[in-house]
């Protein structure tokens, strides 16, 4: 029974994510964390404008403390009422930390817009899931951006939260997502965020170091199951996994590029400024709209391997501790 209770939050969270995704009508704790980050950024810039690096540390630690203390206290209350009630409550929390269905839905909006020839609609759709400037992208650039964000967020949005939840449940999952959300909002290496976002960016690099590499390996192992090239995925991953300013972002992008047989990355504009980037992968063929769908299939297949491992850790190891 303890093994089942330990695994139930992950099972329930994954099931809800598969069915519901991320309806905009529902309140979302990650959006609340985002509002907290914005509020604290304004406060730090006003009160600590001559000490932004220290202010960034204060911002990050405050966000992490609140983001983990709230679910921790709620779960103490829920589990004290009844262990099943607590597990269900934690399962709902786990659902909010998984983004597989949302990632697929948002990227497929790009796919459908490109398919009907709506370039402006495709630019708008891809702008919702990438941080780069999208107004300069042609159709090929739009497709490439969508494939890249599916590949990168396979780790950030799906498998890394699973790995942390397998060990520390929803509480550790919220710790990870708070750090990841800070990185996506203030972790840029430009003049505006270089100081205030430095601690958050470094923390995100540390937290994603192992998950990104394990996810890339899971994607290479899963590639043949969805009709993609696993051997090439592994070869390109070994060769190109460091071709990014971040130590982690190229890990899953390289595996995806190799599996698909396309070339990803390259120069991109952020906030009107051109950033020079190396290419990832070999142009075995030209990238095409269908690659967005293929990238999503690879995301689900790779995530399934990680999910199975996470269930094992949660049920056998954590469940065993509860015995």
Question: Would you kindly provide a written description of the structure presented here, covering whatever features stand out?
Answer:
With 323 residues, this protein is mainly alpha-helical. It has helices spanning 2-20, 29-47, 52-81, 83-97, 100-115, 119-127, 139-186, 198-222, 230-240, 249-260, 290-322; strands spanning 264-265, 268-270, 273-275, 279-280. The protein has eleven helices and four strands. The strands form two sheets. A two-stranded antiparallel sheet has the order 1-4. Helix 1 (2-20) packs antiparallel against helix 11, helix 5 (100-115) packs antiparallel against helix 7 and helix 7 (139-186) runs parallel beside helix 11.
Write the layout of secondary structure elements.
Layout: H1 2-20, H2 29-47, H3 52-81, H4 83-97, H5 100-115, H6 119-127, H7 139-186, H8 198-222, H9 230-240, H10 249-260, E1 264-265, E2 268-270, E3 273-275, E4 279-280, H11 290-322
Antiparallel strand pairs: 1-4, 2-3
Helix pairs in contact: 1-4, 1-11, 2-3, 2-7, 3-4, 3-7, 4-7, 5-6, 5-7, 5-11, 6-7, 7-8, 7-10, 7-11, 8-9, 8-10, 8-11, 9-10
